[in-house]
Amino acid sequence: MPSKLIIHGGFFSESGTNHEIRTAKQQALKDIATKAHGFLLKHTAVETVAYAVSLLESCELFNAGLGSQIQSDGKIRMSASLMDGLTQKFSGVINIEDVEHPIHVAKKLMEFEDSVLGGPCATSFAREHGFDYFYAEIPQRRKEFQEKLEKTRTGTVGCVALDGEGRLAAATSTGGKGFEMPGRISDSATVAGNYANRFAAVSCTGVGEDIVSGALAAKIVTRTTDGLSLREAMERSFGELKPFDGFAGAIAISANGDIWHQDSHPYMVWASFDSEVNVFD
Ligand code: ASP
After folding, report:
1. Residue nearest ligand 1's atom 7 by CA
2. Any bridge partners for residue 157, and if so which?
3. What's the pLDDT tens digit per position in 21-54?
4. What whole-number distance in Å separates Cα of residue 9 and Cα of residue 69?
C-alpha cells in the first residue's frame, strides 16, 4: 500500500488576493507535506499526523500553536485532537494555554483512559507531563486583535495520513476562530472536526459551530464506512451544510487510497503527498 497524506492550513481571506501570503503558504505547505511524507515512510499514520501538525503549529502563518488567534478577553486558548483509525482512540485538548504544541499534549493523552481534557486542567496536565511554558502570541495577531479584525478568516491546521500498512489517522489543531467568548468550544477537538476509523480519516476547518451542526468529519467517515466513495461522502455531507450556509472545508483519505479535499467557500489552503507533492493554486 503506497503511503500518502494530505494537510491543510485552514481558510485565509488573503490567500485569494495577497500574492505574497499566498506564495508563502504554498511554500510552507509544500515543505511540510514533503517532510511529513518522508517521516510517514518510517512511522505509523498516527505518529505522522501528530508530527505534521506539530510542524504546522510551529509555522506562524497558520492559526495553531505559534501564531494562534486571540480570544475576546485578550488570551490565546488552543484546541487540538488526534484520532487513530485502527484503534479508534480519540484524544484531545480544549482551550489549553501556553504550550508550544497542543497536538503533542493530545498525543500524550492517548496513553490515558480519560483522553480529552479542557481548560486549566488541560494546561496543568501538560505541565505535569513536562510540557514547558510557551508564549504563542505573535505581534501580527495582537495587531489584528487591537484593530478588531473579526473578519479575518482563520487558518486552523490538520493532517490525515494512510501508512504503508493501510492504517489511517487524523489530527487537527487550532487557535479558534478569533475574538470568541472565553469558554467557547472549538470543533477541532471534537468528532465533528476530526475523525478516523479503518475506512476513512477526515480533518475539518471553518466555522466550528457549522462543522458541529453538520457533524461533518464523523458523517463523512460513516458514509464512507457504509459504502459511499470518499468523494460522494464528502459531496453529500457538504451539501447538507447548504441549508444553513455552513462554512467549512475538509481533507480526507479513504482506506483504498482515495484522497480528497472540499470546501464550501473559496480559499481553503492544502497540500498533499500522493506519488508527488501537490499544492493549492
Ligand atoms: N474550526 C475552527 C474553530 O471554529 C477554526 C478554523 O478552522 O479555522 O475553532
Report:
1. 205
2. 173
3. 889 999 999 999 999 999 999 999 999 999 999 9
4. 14
- Residue 203 belongs to domain spanning: 4-280
From residue 25, alpha-carbon distances to 199, 260, 275, 276 in Å are 30, 19, 21, 18
Confidence bin at 14 (pLDDT 50/70/90): low
Q: Report the interhelical angle of 45-58 vs 102-109 (nearest 10°).
A: 150
Where are the extended beta strands (E) located within 55-189?
A: 78-84, 89-96, 116-118, 157-162, 168-174
Atom of ligand 1 nearest to the CA of 184: 9
Total structural domains within the chain:
1
Catalytic residue, candidates 123, 154, 156, 190: 156
C-alpha cell at 164: 504503508
Mutate to test the pocket of ligand 1, among 15, 69, 187 (most ligand atoms within 8 A of CB): 187
Please report, for the domain that includes residue 64, its CATH number.
Answer: 3.60.20.30
The one-character DSSP state at 186 is: P
